[in-house]
Amino acid sequence: MSTTSDTIAPRQIPDRLDRPLVSLVFSWEALLVLVAVAIFVANSLASPYFLDAWSLSDLTFNFTEKGLIALAMALLIISGEIDLSVAAIVALASTLMGMAVQAGVGTPGLVAIGIVAGLACGAFNGLLVTRFGLPSIVVTIGTMSLFRGIAFIILGDQAYKGYPAGFAFFGQGYVWWVVSFELVLFLAAAIVYGFLLHRTSFGRRVFAIGNNPVAAQYSGVRVGRIKFVLFCLTGLMAGIASVLITSRLGSTRPSIAQGYELEVITMVVLGGVSILGGAGSIMGVVLAAFIMGLVTFGLGLLNVPGIVMSIFIGLLLITVIALPIVWRRIKGRRAA
Amino acid sequence: MSIVKKLMVAAALSAAMFANAAHAENVKIALVVKSLGNGFFDAANKGAEEAAKELGDVDIIYTGPTKATAEAQIEVVNALIAQKVDAIAISANDADALVPALKKAMERGITVISWDSGVAPEGRQMHLNPSDTNLIGETIIKLAADYLPEGGDVAILSASSTATNQNAWIEAAKAALPGKFPNINLVATVYGDDDSAKSTDEAKGLLKSYPNLKAIIAPTTVGVVAAAQVVTDEGLIGKVNVTGLALPSEFKQFIDNGASQAVALWNPIDLGYSAVYLAHDLAVKKDEAKPGAKLSIGRVGEVTLDDTNSAAMAAPFTFDKSNIEEFSKIY
């Protein structure tokens, strides 16, 4: 059997310079798969209702919308930026779709409005960060209040409803048997983002910016433009998520998707993306999304109160983050 | 066979065993609340457990999200659908956003009713209100009349003049006056806007303008506290009785000091009890929820469904010296 070791595979350009062990066995994704399987088995043992096609299908709704945003957020965080306004973008886009419904706009128009609104919000964030050189955490804390504030001004304590029947498909429809449209969209988007990050020069530039923006700039990478595109993508995904969640709820209130930004960022970090930028993979984020869904749904089946659920997610996050670091320490000590 | 596969098989086997063990057991009724860690809902759960004991074959699943959002509540509902509960009785965080999830529950054969905070008609089989306009209107006058055997002047201190709830209750109260309470004379209705300072001023104004005033009726939890404080401060305890709708925990001190003889509000224990009774009725006895149907709610009585399949449980529950201590700990 011939080997191709003399040609350089793309994977050999390291995604993270401090990759602990070359062996795939100890890669982050392998660890996440292990965690996911463990939780899956634990769920199956703990509840007789878990291993059921419809249960497993319902489970995916716990993470698909947030997961879609997490895909774009992963790229943004790898580039060293962050967007805390994503949940507010969902709310504003949903509110605008609600207004459009009152004006008699049909399903295709609504989808377009939701996506364009998300894109516009993302572009606004990107403009503030790249044009004026403001820190993204400050900008997006500001726009988080701004976008949701606009939604509250428009709606107050009212709700928009009366979405057309066809619009319900996006958040409630099934492509085949128990496979929901949301899940298919999430998996398709994951493939697109995986390709974009790991198989294109654009993706390499994102890593380069995250590792050292100054060096990237001097190497001819248009740092500002790429960051702007990443903010637009994040806004776009928030717009798409807004279409899905609005369709799933069949109504809009300004408090829609409250607190989603932290859950999205949790997914990204759990997925192995370095919060400092420069490292991470889409596979990890997808696995993290599934893990979050498995944990919340599994505990829900046992009627565990929500607060215990958040404690569990917190512990999971700390454990999964700490494990490789501790492992590396032990390895380092042995080598010394 | 890999370890993972072995584990999966083991999991599947044990799941099957669990499923068999879980067969042919009690009726599972889920009491879903807006958020956990709320005394009002914990009290409702107490009532639900009481109903379960009475009905005999019922298991209560008391659950709800930590954050009072519709999205979090939908995740709870999805988990309940997966558990194949027999009925869901929900106090909803959003009347519209829960509809698709609850519709899905009904499609899968689960009985769905809402209580306390309702869901739009297409998302539930029936809704249980704690009370209704006429009962509340009558009760607030009765609370004053019970302690005025010879009759006398009373005044109403309401919330804002545009508050839909309060205005409807006051109208109902006025309608009940001539027939049922002929010697009670309603001299004025003033508005404190549910603002402590404004309510205090309005209460003082009432006492000045009507020296013969025997009772102040405040059908708002803000106004009733303000009025009782004014009566206490001006040394009119025993001369002017303050009553209305009040939260026992906020109002206990004024029952204790005598500024008020009794107040009323919905009883969460009865509400949880009745919700479970109705859910059991629809899920097990297969009674149909349709306009005009009469359904039993055990010791609380009977309800009649209106055109929107909503029902009112009972007149507001009265709190006086005998029970304020107990209820002030609940909500």
The CATH topology label of chain A is ABC transporter involved in vitamin B12 uptake, BtuC
> What is the level 1 CATH name of chain A?
Mainly Alpha
Main sheet summary of chain A? 2 strands, antiparallel
Largest interface comes to: A-B, 43 and 42 residues
Number of helix segments of chain B? Answer: 11
Shape field of chain A: globular
Order of helices and strands of chain A: HHHHHHHEEHHHHHHH
Shape of chain B: elongated
Largest sheet of chain B: 6 strands, parallel
Our count of domains of chain A comes out at 1
Count of structural domains of chain B:
2
CATH superfamily of chain A: ABC transporter involved in vitamin B12 uptake, BtuC
**Strand order in the largest sheet of chain B:** 2-1-3-4-5-13
The named CATH superfamily of the largest domain in chain B: Response regulator
Describe the structure.
The complex is a heterodimer of chains A (336) and B (331). Chain A is an all-alpha fold and 336 residues long. Chain A has one domain (26-324): ABC transporter involved in vitamin B12 uptake, BtuC, CATH 1.10.3470. Chain A has helices at residues 28-46, 53-60, 64-78, 86-102, 107-131, 136-155, 169-172, 181-199, 201-211, 213-218, 223-249, 260-270, 282-301, 306-335, and strands at 174-176, 179-180. A two-stranded antiparallel ribbon of chain A has the order 1-2. In chain A, a hairpin with a 2-residue loop joins strand 1 and strand 2 (179-180). Chain A is globular. The model of chain A is unreliable at 1-9 (pLDDT under 50). Chain B is built from eleven helices and 14 strands. In chain B, helix 2 links the parallel strand 1 and strand 2. In chain B, helix 3 (70-82) packs parallel to helix 4 (99-107) and helix 5 crosses helix 6. The A-B interface holds A 37, 40-41, 44-45, 47-52, 54-55, 58-59, 61-62, 159, 161, 168, 171-172, 245, 248-251, 253, 255-259, 296-297, 300-301, 303, 305-307, 309-310 and B 4, 7-8, 10-12, 14-16, 18-19, 21-22, 36-37, 61, 63-67, 69-72, 74-76, 78-79, 81-84, 94-97, 99-100, 104, 108.
